[in-house]
Amino acid sequence: MSSTLKRASLAVVAAAGVFLAGAVTLGHPMRTLARASEPQGPQGASSATGASTCPDFTAIVRRYGPAVVNVSVVQKQENDQMMSGPDEDFLRRFFGTPFGMPHGNQTVRGIGSGFIVKSDGLILTNRHVVANASEVTVKLTDKREFRAKVLGSDKDTDVAVLRISATDLPTVRLGDSDKVQVGEWALAIGSPFGFENSATAGIVSARARSLPGEGYVPFLQTDAAVNPGNSGGPLFDQEGEVIGINSQIYSGSGGYMGISFAIPINVAMKVEQQIVATGRVTRSRLGITIQDVNAQLAKSFGLPRPAGALVGSIDKSGPSAKSDLRPGDVILRLNGQDIDSSGDLPPRIADMQPGSVAKLTVWRDGKEREVEVKVGAAKEEAVASNGQGNAEHGRLGLAVRPLTPEEQRQADVSGGVVVEGVSGPAARAGLEPGDVILSVNGKPVKSVEELRSLTKDAKDEVALLIQRGDSRIFVPIDLG
After folding, report:
1. Considering its fold, how many domains does the chain have in total?
2. Band of pLDDT at residue 408, cut at 50, 70 and 90
3. What range does the domain containing 448 cover?
């Protein structure tokens, strides 16, 4: 079985009352980050002969372990989807064949990790831990449990922000992931396979790793043991500062094989700040495809060394189409900063304000030249919610957004709003992301504001007309 990147998100999955520990979603990476400084002092003193002792993480676990939480979710999932494909062999090896499981929507429970960054209940975790969850529950080390609200999440970085109603909570101390060095010690705390508050340690194996489909995150690689259920948990350095969010593993078995990846905390905090402030994440783009420059390509282009991001194509409707940037250009610097590999470019562009000018130094025809591109805004992701948000979220348990003109043409409708997240009453009624809400109790819905207005004063039940694929059906939702 070939090794693949796998998300280590939900450590314990239960469907139709059968608990399946250790299920992972194949084909989606799980991330882990690590940082640790050179052993010094009582935690890892070097002897006169140069030999060093292993670090002692007991003080860090004792102080910051209470700020690491267990995140459990409830979501709806098709049994056929849950028990087919590459995961099936893994589940059968550990748990046998789940005979007699009914088809159709089933309640699926999962467990991940998170950590408290503000004493008033602000928590960071992975997006894939809480994606499509109808209920999110946070459990502290003192056994208290709280229903959590998903303030928002970002698909591109796999970061989600939760809020619980509590005060004076223990918090972690945040570090600077830009200062992480390869070879430093790192400590991961989380809930592997549901074993809460487990601590594992290793070293930072590499920095700025680019993973397939993860262009905005320069991952930290570590060999700290991380498994399904660690997703969303913190990665500490030897000073006790969080340097990353454990998120992915490289595995051929579904479990730890010595290579884990984490989202740098600097990346995660930029997402957290935007979500808390606006409920959304805004980033910029160039509208190009890029690839690394290897030794053979560098030689063919006449480059002194393999470096930069090679432009493969330019989106005709993207920001770069209006500039002098061309396919075949090698981007060497952005605003004066070196681009050593293609993975360096997307996160730096993403951090720029839409409409600002990116000054690119490119290699073309054997020499450097300057190209300016006014960056554009990447598509924003709607806020995720668990039903404790604004009016329509709280009553119906829906996260919705208006249909774009193109979506209206494709669905052959003149209005409506599209469902992006379900929880509470809407989840129990069977609504799904992608459903288009056309009316409430027979009254047309053309905007999010109309949906809010029509459901605000509803009594015990409302009837939604929805379009799902090519079919239109009425769905009653019990608000009682």
Report:
1. 3
2. confident
3. 391-478
pLDDT digits (tens, 9 = 90+) for 341-360: 888 888 888 888 888 899 99
Our answer to whether residue 28 is catalytic in this structure is: no
Q: Which of 377, 405, 437 is the last residue of a domain?
A: 377
Q: Of the residues 37, 72, 87, 128, which is catalytic? A: 128
Question: CA-to-CA distance for 149 and 24, rounded, in angstroms?
Answer: 24
Known catalytic residue at 198: no
Q: Is the pLDDT of residue 363 over 90?
A: yes
67 and 156 in one domain?
yes
Q: Quick one: which of 226, 247, 190, 188 has its CA closest to 57?
A: 188
pLDDT of amino acid 394: 56
The catalytically annotated residue of 87, 154, 156, 158 is 158
Q: Between these two residues, 296 and 57, which has the higher pLDDT value?
A: 57
Domain with residue 306: its CATH number is 2.30.42.10
- Chosen domain end from 243, 278, 313: 278
The pLDDT, as a whole number, for residue 240 is 94
The rounded distance, in Å, linking the Cα atoms of 301 and 281 is 37
CATH number at 225 reads: 2.40.10.120
> Among 113, 134, 231, 251, which one carries the catalytic annotation?
231
Do residues 276 and 379 lie in contact, with contact meaning Cβ atoms separated by under 8 Å?
Answer: no
In DSSP notation, 404-469 reads: PHHHHHHHT-SS-EEEEEE-HHHHHHT--TT-EEEEETTEE--SHHHHHHHHHT--SEEEEEEEET
pTM exceeds 0.85, yes or no: no
pLDDT tens digits for 202-236?
999 988 877 765 567 888 999 999 988 899 999 99
At 100 the pLDDT is: 37
Same domain, 45 and 11: yes
Residue 342 belongs to some domain of the structure: yes
Whether residue 38 lies inside any domain: the answer is yes
94 domain residue, yes or no? yes
Q: Does the annotation count 423 as an active-site position?
A: no
